[in-house]
């Protein structure tokens, strides 16, 4: 028996770093939205004595360094189960080092899929607690839709998923390490901060134009990459309602009210970079296929 789920990526509509805890973790305030760009995660039973992981991208480790592997271990600990005999297969579709929470999406996918495969029946809070041990974005990836994420990112206040629209996501070749991004933030005096409550109100009201105008991520100022500036320029030439780097980068997304503008923008970007996709907001977390 096996269970397969699609695990959605996320974008940040706003991202602010509001402080630092004594243990060194940064405090953030971010409005996140799940998108229908998904990794495909399958869990199944094996005869092996430990977790087995297969992943179709050789750049990603297939051992305990992988977020999916760690999520399986966290799930078993929470459910009081042995990790023996758990198999995981991942088809990567979410670009890496992109700020799209690809690793966190896989972890959330494993938690949901194992909850369906086993008879553990952990509730959403227990899954979120297990997920938070793997990564700060995992609780949001479990809930999906839209949410205001605070604390280290693990405290999620759900919002109604943003109104349907068209998104172009482009990942330049350069990647950004999250640790390096936070080092840069600590050294930068930020001039522009997000108006988080304006964006949460606009998400609730389904006001795409205000969301587009108010998109703001402090990492754009702290990590000024020429590649992301070039992508934003092309998006603006194609009448985007707003465009922004997601998370600590390096993917950039543009928001479009109509499909044709988004398609033309994606075509123009594909002439410059390889990883470009058209997607839409997604109102849920990992779901069985
Ligand atoms: P975030 O938005 O959470 O910062 P990201 O897009 O910047 O995510 P990921 O793609 O999630 O970054 O992961 C980056 C690093 O984590 C990679 O260098 C990779 O080796 C490692 N990693 C561990 N597990 C995974 C996984 N399941 N998928 C992708 N990367 C993983």
Q: Could you name the ranges where pLDDT drops below 50 across 5 or more consecutive residues? A: none
SSE pattern, N- to C-terminal: EEEHEHHHEEEHHHEHHEEHEE
Helix residue percentage: 25-40%
- Report the major sheet: 8 strands, mixed
- Mean pLDDT score: 97
Short description:
By secondary structure, this protein is α+β, with helices and mostly antiparallel strands.
Strand and helix map with partners:
Layout: E1 2-20, E2 26-45, E3 52-55, H1 67-79, E4 86-91, H2 102-117, H3 124-132, H4 138-143, E5 146-150, E6 155-159, E7 166-171, H5 178-187, H6 196-205, H7 208-214, E8 216-217, H8 218-222, H9 226-237, E9 242-245, E10 252-256, H10 259-270, E11 275-279, E12 287-288
Parallel strand pairs: 1-8, 3-4
Antiparallel strand pairs: 1-2, 1-12, 2-4, 2-5, 5-6, 7-10, 7-11, 9-10
The structure holds adenosine-5'-triphosphate.
Residues 60-61, 65-68, 96-104, 106, 137, 178, 247-248 line the site of adenosine-5'-triphosphate.
């Amino acid at each position: 028996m096996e269970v397969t789920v699609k695990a959605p990526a996320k974008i940040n509509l706003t991202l602010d770093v509001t402080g630092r805890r004594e243990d060194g973790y940064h405090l953030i305030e971010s409005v996140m939205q799940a998108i229908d760009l998904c990794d495909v995660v399958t869990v199944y039973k094996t005869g092996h004595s430990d977790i087995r992981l297969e992943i179709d991208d050789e750049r990603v480790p297939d051992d305990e360094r992988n977020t999916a592997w760690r999520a399986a271990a966290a799930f078993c600990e929470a459910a009081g189960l042995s990790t023996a005999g758990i198999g995981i297969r991942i088809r990567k579709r979410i670009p890496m080092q992109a700020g799209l929470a690809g690793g966190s999406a896989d972890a959330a996918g494993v938690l949901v899929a194992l909850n369906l495969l086993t008879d553990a029946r952990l509730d959403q809070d227990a899954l979120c607690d297990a997920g938070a041990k793997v990564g700060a974005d995992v609780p949001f990836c479990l809930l999906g839709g839209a949410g205001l994420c605070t604390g280290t990112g693990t405290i999620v206040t759900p919002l109604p998923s943003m109104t349907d629209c068209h998104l172009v996501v482009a990942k330049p070749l350069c990647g950004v390490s999250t640790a390096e991004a936070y080092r840069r933030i600590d050294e930068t005096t930020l001039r522009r901060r997000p108006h988080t409550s304006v964006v949460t109100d606009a998400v609730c009201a389904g006001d795409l134009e205000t969301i587009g105008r108010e998109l703001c991520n402090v990492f754009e100022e702290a990590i000024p990459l020429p590649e992301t500036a070039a992508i934003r320029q092309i998006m603006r030439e194609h009448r985007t309602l707003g465009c922004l780097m997601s998370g600590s980068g390096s993917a950039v997304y543009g928001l479009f009210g109509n499909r044709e503008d988004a398609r033309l923008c994606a075509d123009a970007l594909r002439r410059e970079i390889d990883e470009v996709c058209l997607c839409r907001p997604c109102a849920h977390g990992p779901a069985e296929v």
